[in-house]
Design a protein that fits this description.
The structure holds two protein chains of two kinds. By secondary structure, chain A is of the alpha/beta class. Chain A has helices at about 5-15, 25-35, 50-60, 70-75, 80-85, 115-125, 135-145, 170-185, and strands spanning about 20, 40, 65-70, 90-95, 100, 105-110, 130-135, 150-155. Chain A has one domain (about 5-185): 3-Layer(aba) Sandwich (Rossmann fold), CATH 3.40.50.970. Chain A is globular and about 50 Å long. Chain B is α/β, with parallel strands linked by helices. Classes of the chains: A alpha/beta, B alpha/beta.
Amino acid sequence: MNRFDLLYKVQNILKDNLVICNIGLPSQELYKISDQPNFFYMLGSMGLSSSIGLGLSLSQNKHVISIDGDGSVLMNMNTLATIGNRAPSNYTLLIIDNGSYGSTGDQRTFTDEKTSLKDVALGAGCKNVVECSGEETVNQLNKAIDDKDNSYVIISKINSGNVKIDPIPLNPITIRDRFRKFIGIVKYL
Amino acid sequence: MKISKKIIDNLKKGGVDFYLSVPCKLLANMINILENDKNVYYSAVPREEEGMGICAGAYLGNKFPCIMMQNTGIGNSVNAIVSLLQLYQMPVVFLISYRGTPGEPVGAQGGMAKITEDILQTLRIPMLHCSSEKELDKIPTFSKHAKVVESPVAILCDFNLMKDDT
């Protein structure tokens, strides 16, 4: 299972939640599988999907899923400490860990060598940290969303590999405004 | 404490209701005030760039965020400012302790001080430079301006303005 297969498999769960999706191929693949107004596609700022989702979950009550990657979490690893200490129960971090910088040509990341993001997350203070296969991810995501008392970090271990895909045609302000309209903030659209 | 209290009161008058900080000794009193304020959200964060991401999410969730930091934090955050806050036109207030300005005892702070305003200028971020207590009165209007123009804005507080505010 690669990232596209995984996103395809979890699309129905994502549809019912606020989703912050990582820059590059993850966003492009999700857009191709199922574009939704409650999906915020990152067009820049690699590393900050987890942080954007955290700020969003602290600011309103709907459940938030941040879709991140191993390379991106390695770039902003302090986020795990902030999540471990501050994440509310309406927050789930889904790290798609394919051991690879997929969007830049599949160079290996350190999770393909010695680094365990599960161990890092636990050490950073995250309590509910699950490492699972791509197949198991649907169940783990459902469990995280159903648990109204705890936040979760789910590390989904999959294979590297990408599908051929086009850039997202949406303008950033369109992404912003339809997302905020879904939450009920923007009234003018 | 008087200056710190005035800054926080004026940010709140400007509508700011979500605060993060990466600490600085010049921000210590403000952090103390916010930690004891039940009406607004406050948290420390380990790094400014991450704070920009959290502020972006807070804006999406209908908060008006502020990140408090040293001017060195601007250097840590340039891509997040340009490729996230400005790309999606998100209002965020940067409350900056302007280390390396006259009165600063640590010589090494001078380097970032020399280029801080140039960086903000290059990024086209509106600036309010506060060197005296009177200038703090402009904070409410200046903060609201961030929402009107849908842009991050920066409030720079000089070392000498903050240093005796015990």
